[in-house]
Design goal:
Distance between the termini of chain A: 35 Å
Largest interface: A-B, 39 and 39 residues
Largest sheet of chain A: 3 strands, antiparallel
Number of domains of chain A: 2
Structural class of chain A: alpha+beta
CATH architecture of the largest domain in chain A: Orthogonal Bundle
Low-confidence stretches of chain A: none
Helix content of chain A: 40-55%
Order of helices and strands of chain A: HHEHHEEEEHEH
CATH topology of the largest domain in chain A: Arc Repressor Mutant, subunit A
Oligomer: homodimer
Strand order of the largest sheet of chain A: 1-3-2
Mean pLDDT of chain A: 92
Strand content of chain A: 15-25%
DNA sequence: ATGAGTGCAAAGGCTTTGCATTAGG
DNA sequence: CCTAATGCAAAGCCTTTGCACTCAT
């Protein structure tokens, strides 16, 4: 998905929820795009000093609600955000239990689709209305094990 | 694993870290066993009124460190804890995005082992020292969709 | 005895919220 | 114009921590 497509998709998602695509929200999406992976609020504020903390929190909540960004919970105290999968592509996370940082990775299609089938079956058995799955690896990243 | 085996395993794990298996810790393990699934601190305190909040926090941290319990992060603000997989069996979580509650489920062996292989391969490629994986379904539980 | 474990209360720290101001449509 | 969005600062809330007391070895 190209940069301009992302912009339009986000705009559409926001409009659908009667929300405005303000300049602050554009800068926020831009920071997430620039980050290229899950970012903490602190990191976002560093990437774009014009953003204000409380607005970032509020806007991330809204953007998550409309499905434009996704929140990732790691083991540390900092929530991380990245562009939603619609805007990038389906992937998973390598979560470092030492520094808390998160990297993305993907599975081969075969494994992924097999997993998907199994998950839907399990969800159905539990009468659970499944919205998404999250598959993360917990361990120690190269930087920390060095 | 029988109840008495769990006790012994926890005792062993604690001893290995020069920690005592005090009565408070026994009651805590007992509450987790009784709960039969991931519990919030509040729920633990309700299940056993003799437990004190600060000790529960401290002991859960220690029990997690020695590998006797596991922490689960959901989308709400409450950490949940359950007995570690050594003491139960490998499983995954159905996380309700509405009420925050968590239920357990399992995958068939074939899918699980295939997934495991793929994950180790991905971790290796990233130079990531993998400790565990977590696979959760996010959605709405029967109780909340009713 | 002597250090680990506990309990109470206070402090920490990420996140949320109240309210006045600004800007989008 | 008029409501949504923003910014600042203060408040919230789960969790952690300091300190004195208790218990196990």
């Amino acid at each position: 998905m190209t940069a301009i497509d992302i912009e339009e998709e986000v705009a559409t998602l926001l409009r659908g929820a009667d929300q405005r695509y303000t300049s602050g929200r554009r800068r926020l999406i831009s920071a997430l795009k620039k980050g290229g992976g899950p970012l903490t609020i602190t990191k976002i504020l560093e990437l774009d000093g014009s953003l204000r903390q409380s607005s970032v929190y509020r806007n991330l909540t809204i953007l998550e609600e409309v499905g434009a960004v996704a929140r990732i919970d790691t083991r540390d105290d900092f929530a991380r955000y990245e562009l939603a999968e619609h805007l990038t592509e389906h992937h998973h996370h390598l979560i470092c239990t030492s520094c808390g940082d998160v990297a993305d990775f993907s599975l081969d299609n075969e494994t992924e689709s097999r997993l998907d089938t199994a998950l839907h079956k399990a969800a159905k058995a539990a009468g659970f209305d499944i919205a998404a799955h999250r598959l993360d690896l917990l361990g120690v990243c190269t930087k920390c094990s060095a």
